[in-house]
Target: Acyl-coenzyme A thioesterase PaaI-like protein
Amino acid sequence: MSGFDEATRAVRVDENTYDVHLDPGYAVGGPLNGGYLLAVLLRAVVDASPHEHPVTTSAQFLRVAPPGPARVRLEPLKSGKTVTMTRATLLQDDVPLIETLVTTATLNDVVPDWSDGPAAAIPPIEECLRLPVPDPSSGMTLSERTELAFDPPTVGWLDGRPTGRPEVRAYFRLTESKEPDPYVLAMAVDCLPPVIFSAGARGWAPTVDLTWHLRALPAPGWLTLLGSGRLIGDGWFDEEVEVWDSAGRLVAQSRQLARVGRG
Model:
């Protein structure tokens, strides 16, 4: 079992209840990464489902989740030959932190009937940039578990040269020797710096709603993450992320609504 597998493990208590432990190694300045929390929750959902893969997840983030013991509560809604639908809640001390609706199915590793290309181009990985290593006191422990190599213009905000557009593009993988799977994809769709940084904003930008779709099972190797936004206004912004695998296939898509960074 990899470190990520252990950090997202869900232990069955009964048919609708799972115990989990939220790992402090996946924090972003204090709060735990939302994609990591979804991966934890999805472990429980898939374990209880007759189907193998979480093909679509819609999540409402109610409260910040601190590290420590937690519980996933499941409410089966419908189950058939091809899909199962479940309401799943992540709780600590009986207080809901995340509410989700999850549809599971079983995907086959087949050639798609049709596929569009990436929404944007990204240079070869050797021409991309790594961000500076965060100070240990920053609480950015997620950076120790993940590796990101950025398209240089999309991190121009680091030295005061944002592009003025909500965008970010990067290659992604775990620092440990684990190949991507659906649970890694759940975290990957929420692992980029907020796209609003490139538009000139800074600070923590909390996610309110995130929906993501698993489109195919990823090939081994680096993932390519393409993030963009369509509208910033009244203290809100949206963020869309495409995830492409090393074989050039679209393997995940997400859209989230978040508050403009503050602080």
Notes: The two ends are 38 Å apart (CA to CA). The chain has a mean pLDDT of 95. The first helix runs from residue 3 to 7.
